[in-house]
Fold each of these.
Amino acid sequence: MSGGPLAGTTVVDLTRALAGPYATLMLADAGADVIKVERPGKGDDTRGWGPPFVGEPGAEESTYFLSVNRSKKSVVLDFKDEDDLEKLKRLIRRADVLVENFRPGVMERMGLGRDELEEMNPRLVYLSISGFGEGGPDGHRPGFDQIAQGEGGLMSFTGPVGGPPTKVGVPIADMLSGMFGAFGVAAALAEREKSGRGQKVTSSLLGSIVGIQAFQGTRWLIAGEVPEPEGNRHPTIAPYGAYKCADGEINIAVGSEGLWRRFAPLVSMDPDDERFSDNGKRRANVDELEAEITSAFKSASVDEWVERLGEAGVPAGRVKTLDEVYESPQIEHLGLVDTVGHPTLGEIRLPGSPVRYGRSGKRDPEPPPTLGQHTGEVFGAPDG
């Protein structure tokens, strides 16, 4: 058990906010030694994002920062200081991976453009995450999650039936660009085993939103349909969505004709009713279908319906609040909460990685670092 497949891999992390830190979080969870380089004084922008903040006055920590920076080392460098810039270059020379999400031109102004990095370390895998991708008419624009959700079309088909356009409840563009970036790094590291050379990898918030549109994208590209918000309904399958029960809401997924024939009798419907006898008809008559289903579901509790549906083999589940999620025995079984000892906060719980490796093992999680906590360890000098 080596503590993850990337154990022994060194990552220099120049990122801040969420997209880049999410990428390096995934690499850290896989066992990489991630050295997070932060600005003197303030550090990563998210150290100041809140409330909520936790901890004693003067030593507060942002829960936003804590969410994506576990198992990393923090060092402080001032890139305007020549000595600190040279320290950074020394780190890069011995690193396997460099990750940055600066605006275009910043790396070049520091003497760390693509050509300089390749000369400095030919084996370096270099991930650059941007808002709108490299070049093109929008490549210069700064990237923020909600802007990318809007410009990438995601908001246009998310939200209640008829609108208004609605963002996803987490910064999904940031997280997806980090996930795609981490995947790109892993692929480039695998290729390096054959070629012996590193390469530049790019991902963007805009590209990541477009990249996950799946059947919504082909609705337009192939069928010529522009998707609109449909609330909790599925745009192509019925019944599939959320329904009110006597004491809460339930999700159901009747994704095949076989499931429909098992489901319909449970809600006192005839599976051969001409209006609903196949998925196309159910979609065409979805308002009538949902009215009958809603009336039936209100007759019993969520738990009763989950049990009935489960016995019939129909996929269903409660719509839970986060406190209910983290109290779930299944979440505990899957090890999706990491408990770590933070240097100033004591024992804290964090959302954990869902990925497991059968042979390489799982890295033991470490607490998110305080600002500059590992400067002395990394550079052999006093912290600060």
Amino acid sequence: MLNFHFLKAAKAKILAPSLVVLTVLFVPLSSTSRADDKPAWKPGHSHPYGDGEITLSQPVLVARSKTFLWFPSLSRLSDGRLLAIMSDYADEHVKVSTANLAWSDNGGLTWSKPVKGRYGDPTLTLKNGDELMLPYYLHPLGENVMGEQYQIGKVGKSSAKLMKERVTVRGWSRPDQINPTTGMAGFVFNGDTLIDNDGKYLAKLYGHYKDTPRYALVLAESEDGVAWTIRSTIAGEDCPLEGAEGPCEAALCRLADGRLMCVFRLASNVSYGQSFSDDEGKTWSAAQAMPGVFSVQPSLDVLPNGSLALSGGRPGIYLWMNRDGKGLTWDKFDVVANHNEFVPDEKITDAGKSSSYTEVVLLDENHLLLIYDRIPHSWAAIPDDSKETNSIWVVRATINE
């Protein structure tokens, strides 16, 4: 949600208290299902894909609320369940970022009643199978170190415990730009996580160094998911690609040839940038633009055959697929068109009716799940006399080649 800009500044992709009280209405079935129906995926739009096709399901509701509910992220847990984290506050700087959390034990077809927690979209699976949920905002904790409390989700439990200790991030090359209003550190954790070839966790942070006009995007490493050290700069504020914001929200994956690929935002309505690493993220290739693939927080996952799935948008919401696993050419599939046909009473009518923040995760070798939001009053709060609600949805993509 780029709280840092107009949007959201705000998962290891491995199969491995808030003071704000909100009212969340939970509907466990798709909007087209009767209460006595057995939940099932229903086919939506189908499109040619390679020698076969890709079919999006009709949308399924995750949660809805009269108050803020948007900027969703999605993680696959070690026990096979799914975790959705949904921001529940206005897109502004806060000292405590909060969220609604919901779980699914059937691949996203139905969802638990949301519970309150802290906001933060990166998660990683610990060795014991528990899920560590990294924070979003960080506090300055002294010279060259920043940190914040984190949450733990126990295996098989639909809850999250806020830990007393903090994750810490050290090894900064220069001072960050402290927020003058909140006193928070200049960088935030963002996007998915990964495991390197030595078994270390990798996570991305972006933010401002002191007295710099654009964002910088960095990679951090950790043995335990709690103590982090900066490993490298993926793309700095001097990145030559178009985009006034600079390198910020990002997704990371491992290609079939072993290299790491990072896709990142540079501004709303601007093409993503991408960079590659052949040494486990210690160094990165010069950033290059991705024409036609855009624009706010991207999400990546890799299919067993090496093909790539990328979600994002603004304007619109899209699923892009790369068949050869190199990440350079992409087929585009329109998620908004699919949503509007099958949820006609809750259409996403223009770019401002969704944050276009998404996440795509692999379910099995032929299925992906994509999460997104609908915000009928855009970035504004819903008026008390309105019947509208903010809502979170998922679609399942079935790939037949």
Amino acid sequence: MDTDWAAAATGFVIDNNVLIIAGSLVGASGIILTKIMCKAMNRSLTNVLFGTMEPTSATPDADEVYKTVKAVSAEEIALLLENARRVVIVPGYGMAVSRSQHAVRDLANLLEARGAAVEYAIHPVAGRMPGHMNVLLAEANVPYDKLVEMDHINPTMETVYVAIVIGANDVVNPVARTDPGSPIAGMPIIDVNRARTVVVIKRSLSPGFAGIPNPLFAAANTLMFFNDGKKAMLELTSAVKEL
């Protein structure tokens, strides 16, 4: 964003209208995106610019948090999906890194063909910028009306049979609600923990941007599928087809 305003300032110095207009437009867009991110994280601009997100002395040890983690296979998840009437997919940065949006769409289409209702729960700052997940799913031709914003999906999460979290971490971490001393305290999250069953797809138990453990991964209703995002989606699709 600083570069954009610098370009606009340079335009004034050298009397170049193109630089002035382009720099101002892109700079203004950056301000809007920053405001959206601050609201979505429930943090002030000052805190975003100068604050830190890192574990504190009160942050629990990851080994202790994750001692009840349950790992499962694609075949076991397929059995859950076979009778699931409502499935919500929660995409995160892991989906972007693995470029698995098309594979995610294919699994969703298969589940819908079998009678399930499938939606996508979108957190405003999932990924690396506002709208990141929307753009990726649009690229995969996912209908826009299936993308449900966080505030609209949360009140209905208790009716979700299976919530599939693919590569998201901090935006589904219940610590944001339960621990006032957490680095993400007060940040709005998607309440996947309220679904009947949660399937989390991650390559490992590594922390998200905030650097803290996520107790969701060890919850009684959570199953971990340790895999690359795209590979996981392909394996799940294949397992569901074989039922």
